[in-house]
Design brief:
By secondary structure, this protein is mainly α. It is built from 19 helices and no strands. Helix 8 packs antiparallel against helix 9, helix 10 packs antiparallel against helix 11 and helix 11 crosses helix 15.
Length: 383
Amino acid sequence: MQMWPAMQALPGMRARPVMQVLPGMRARPVMQVLPVMRELQGRPMMRGRRRRRRAGMRRATWRCVKVLTGGVGARERWITIGIAAACVVGALILGRVLGGSGTQASGVQASSQVPADPAAAEVSAGLAARDPAEAVRHFEKALELRPGHYGATFQLARALDRAGRKDDATRQWQKVLALAEQSKDLPLIEMAHKRIDQGAVGDPMALGLEALYQKKDPAAAIARFREVLARNPEHYGATYQLATALDQTGDLATSRALWEKMARMADAAGDPKTAETARARLAEIEKALGPAPAADPDAEGMRAAMELLYTKRDAAAAAAELRKILARNPEHYGATYQLAAALDEAGKPSEARPLWEKALRMAEAAKDEKTAVAARARLAKKP
């Protein structure tokens, strides 16, 4: 078989017998080399830039093979090894540079992603906190930075619930409700109403406010506010609200003393608006009842009767106390009204009816429209 020259296998190299292409290698029979040569020779010729690129890659590959197998001189071997080492070092340096710039770029990007809103950062910290007390601090800080923050207001209410601060949580839920109503957020409005209703259970002040302003039941509100004042006689809000509720039941004689007390408390607290309201109400009561007596001998009896009727729910005992007052003063406005209510509560509507008629006449004479409306509504019922 004819031996193929090396030029046919690797174009561009000086023609040598195949056995001389790789000096230093163990001589192999020509029959083991020819299949490789035929395969290389059988490939289609590539033209242009692609052909030159692949030809260069083949030359570089053969050079590396010759270096590794000892097919070149020592000088050429060391030059090739040096070039390869330089390439490796250059690649490492380039990778470090690109990596550093990438790290710097990612740092810049990360810094640009830092929230510009510090309140939002506090909300995020509060959501991540496992301790409810810590969460409360973060949400309160967020609201200090941006009052009225919708999310912080809602999350603070929930955190206060988790922290066991039910009274504070109920007040916070009222703020949530106000914001939800402004935003017309129906699911949150429903949630806030449910939570506020739960918070009202067991809180006499909250129950009193609900009875007075939502349920329009001043009598029930009076009982709740008296519970608060029994624990704390100087409770500012309970004093004001009890006076308001007594006005709505027509017991102006009892409310007068509370409005006087309220005016003194407001002056001491530096609350001119409430003091002005109390004095304006006292002026109206004076027009209706005349000047206040120097001392009301029935004040203590009325207080005891109100406690029995609305706090202890003992209508019979309250009626007995009110009859004592009316025995001394048959025209006592508050005692007449409250005795009628006590008799109704005790299940004696037939006895209460004449008192309701008398209370209506007294209310019309005093131009107390609220009491007159209540008396007419009761008289419309039978008996």
